[in-house]
Amino acid sequence: MSTIKSVSKESRIFEPPAAFAQQARVSTREQYDALYRRSIDDPEGFWGDLASELHWFSKPTKIRQWDPPFAKWFEDGTTNLAYNCLDRHVAEGRGDRVALVWEGEPGETLTFTYAELSRQVQRFANGLLRAGVVEGDRVVIYMGMVPEAAIAMLACARIGAVHSVIFGGFAADAVRDRVLDAGATTILTQDGAWRRGKVVALKAQVDKALEQCPDVARTIVLRRTGNEITMKEGRDHEWTAVLEGVSDEHQAPALPAEHPLFILYTSGTTGKPKGVLHTTGGYMVGTYVTTKYVFDLRDDDVYWCTADVGWITGHSYIAYGPLTNGATVLMYEGAPNHPGLDRFWEIIAKHQVTIFYTAPTAIRAFIKWGDEHPSKHDLSSLRLLGTVGEPINPEAWMWYRRVIGGDRCPIIDTWWQTETGAIMMTPLPGAIPAKPGSCTLPFFGVSPKILREDGSEAETNEGGYLVIDQPWPSMLRTVWGNDERFRQGYFSRFPGKYFTGDGARRDEHGYFWVMGRVDDVVNVSGHRLGTAELESALVAHPTVAEAAVVARPDELTGQALVAFVTLKGGVTPSGELKKELADHVGNEIGKFARPASVRFADAVPKTRSGKIMRRLLAELAAGKEPAGDVTTLEDISVLAALRGDDE
Known about the structure:
The protein has about 650 residues and is α/β, with parallel strands linked by helices. Helices cover about 30% and strands about 20% of the residues.
C-alpha cells in the first residue's frame, strides 16, 4: 500500500485571542506568510539577519552549505554559546535580571540573576579546566534536575567540551553504553536525586557502569541528598573540591560554528545507542529564534518547561533557547504528583508562571487525576500553553485549554525531534488559528513534504511519510562516530530528503497532522491506519484518560486491533465498558477500525521521556514475551501488570 489512511474528523478552529495577537511578535497570518516565504526563498539572507542578533567573535559570511546529507551553517563564523546565554546579557546591562528560578522537590527555592549564573558557570568552567578537561573532551552529565546540571552544560559549552547528558532515571547498563559510545573521559553526577520523596542513587549507578568503562579518568560528585556513597581515590572528586579556590572569571574562547556542542542519545531504540550530534552555531541560532517567536517571549514572562534536561526539550527549551533570549526560566526538581497531585498547579500559582510547556502524556495523567487538583489554585497568571513530545489527542487538547488555560490561553502544539534540535512545526500564537491535535504550519525555514511510498507527493488529506527537503540551522550533523548510520537512518528512504520516521497528512487549510511513527502503522482489512488517530478516538470517550492501540496477527483481517486503555479516576472497568469502547471507535471511524480486543491498564509502558512503547504492547497482544531493549522503560512493573490481564 502506498498511503496511510487518515480517519480524523477534527474541525474545531480557535483564533488567536485579539489581545494576545495585538502584542505578539507575529500578529497576523499575512505577516507569518511573508516571513516564511522569505525564509524559503532566501535562506541565507533570512538566517544571516537573525544570526546577527547574537554575538559572534567573527561574523559568518558562509551562511549555509548543503551537500546531502551533510549540512554546515555559519561555517566561517566563531562564537560561544555560553557567552550568548549569559555574558552578553550582563554586558548589555541586564545582569540583575532573574535568569533561573529553581524549586527543589522538598520545597526549597533558589534564584539566580544573569550575573550570578554567569559567575557560577565561569567558575565551574575554570574548575573543569583545572581538573584536566580540555576542548573536544566528551563529558557525561548524569544528574537530577538541579541548577548545577544546567551550570555544567553551560560550562562545557563555554570551554568547548562536548557534553552528553544522560537522564538521571537510566540504569547502569544504559549509562555504560552511552559513556563507551561517546568515548567520555569525565562524568559529572551527584550522590542521589529526589524523586517522589525517595532518593534515586545516581553515584551507585555510575560506580557500576564504570566497572566496564576504563577510559573514564574522573568523576565529579555533587552532594544533594546526603545518601551514603563510595568515593574511589584518584578518580572521584567532590564538586566543592573542584571549585575550591577557583576564580569566577573566565574568558570565553571563540569556537568555530561547527564545533561539536553535544551528543544526545535517542530513547526507545534497540541495540547500539544512537548518539545524535549537534554543533554550536546553527543550534544556537535555531533555538534562539524558535524560542523568541514560538513562545512570544516578553520581559515579564516566567517561563516553565517541565521536561528533564536529559532530553532534547530540556537542552533546547530550558537551557539554551530561553537563556539566549534573556528569559526568566523556572526549573523544578521533582515529580508532578509529589507530595500531592496538585504540585504543578501549586508551583504555577506560587511563581506566577506565564508560559507553561509540557507533554501530552503529562496532560493525560492530569486528566486521569481529576479537575479538582488544578481548580484548587489560581492559574490566572498563565498566558500561553504548549505541548511537546508526541501528537496530542484533540480531547486532551480541549481539556488543557479549558481547565488549565481557562479558555483564554493560546496553545502551541509543537512538532520536532531530538534530531531536529528545535521546533519545526507549530502555530505562532498571535498569528495562526489552532486546530486541536494539529501542529498546524511549518516554522520559518522548514520545508516539510508528505510523500507516498514511491516518493511522489501525497494529495490533500492523504496520509504519507513526513520528510523535510531543505536543511535548517539546528539539524543534527551526523550520528556520533557513524556517518553511514546517519545516512542510512535518515536519508536513504527518500534520497536527499530528511525522513522523520513519522506519518502525516496535510488538510485543506495546509495544516499538518502527525499520525504517529510509521513503525506503528497498523494494517487492518487493507486499511493502513496511524495509531495516533485511533487513540484519539478512544480518548474522546468520556471515561478514557489514555489509550494505546497496537495490532496482533489475525488470519481473517491480516491484523486485528488491540486497545490498551487507562480509565479516568473513579471509573470502574467492566466487560460492558469494553464493548462500549470498541463500539465507540467503530461508530467514530468505521467498523473496520473497531478493536477486536480492549484491555484495561492502570498504566501503559512508556519511555522515560513519556512516549508509549507500542512495540512492547504489540508483543504482549500477540501473546509473546516482550523482547529487545527495555533500558528506556520508565517502570518495568507496568509490563508485569499487563501480562496479568488476559482479558
